Amino acid sequence: MTFKPAWWCPGAHLQTLWANRLRPRPPLALRRERIELADGDFVDLDWTSNSRGPIVLMLHGLQGSSNSRYARSVLGAVDRAGWRGALLHFRGCSGEPNRLPRAYHSGETGDLDQIVQLLHQREPSTAIAVIGVSLGGNVLLKWLGETGDRAPVVAAVAISVPYELSRAADKLDSGFSRLYQWDLMFALRNALEQKRRQVVLPLTLTTPLRFRSIRDFDDRVTAPLHGFRDAAHYYSVSSARQYLKHIAVPTLLIHALDDPFMVPDVVPKQHELADCVTLDIHRSGGHVGFVAGRWPWRPHYWLEERVPAFLRSFIPSPAFAGKG
Questions:
Q1: Which residues does the annotation mark as catalytic?
Q2: Interior CA angle at 35 toward 33 and 41, to 5°?
Q3: Does the global pTM surpass 0.70?
């Protein structure tokens, strides 16, 4: 399924900003469920309106949530397909700080595993698929590689994944991409400051919080909170690229070569992939952008079409097969 960028939305940055900042936030009714985790913390799931049928679990990007435009866009497409969409908020991302000092990161797969296992235990005969976006895509691919043929899911889609975290951090600290880094750092600082008011953190931090870059934040916060020596160790262990050959679930990787969050050659080569993994690479599309359509007042968000089209090969779609 070919992506053709809109003529009125040219270039990586406009594709990225239109889809994630400039477009109206898609309306979507959601129901929240709180899940208590084994270590005493919690995560929140936001469910779409369908009450039965296959489950499509979505993982958001860094400091994302069910309020993110890309999340509401894809969840809306999932809902229209007749499936039950659910967005898993990583710890601390649902509008309330999590209880423990630790939070989430690009390589943290334990919470995803708990939630998928819980959903599978609730409904053993229900098909489950997973969509991961950006950081969430890295988490998804790492988990799929770790679990192999034990993963109780029938299909997966990963969008705009930073396959090599160290190189993505470098890219975000260069040129115009610093705009995205500034935006992410603003969100990370605010979340950390809010959490410091409620939880004692085993960190030495200045007030006000000052971080030079994503790498600096990962070196001083992410790594020590989650048992890594430093940012370099965290990036090395957590990057998804090294796990792709071990995936045993049909998986689609959607990526644009002009993604401003990373350099083009972080995209894995065919020989690095398991046979069940499909690369869907496009020259343009930005980061979680993929904006098409003939006119700006009638945009077409291609991911809303591409993701369900892939998943329909593996899970039933009541919206198309007929309800009942």
A1: 134, 259, 287
A2: 135
A3: yes
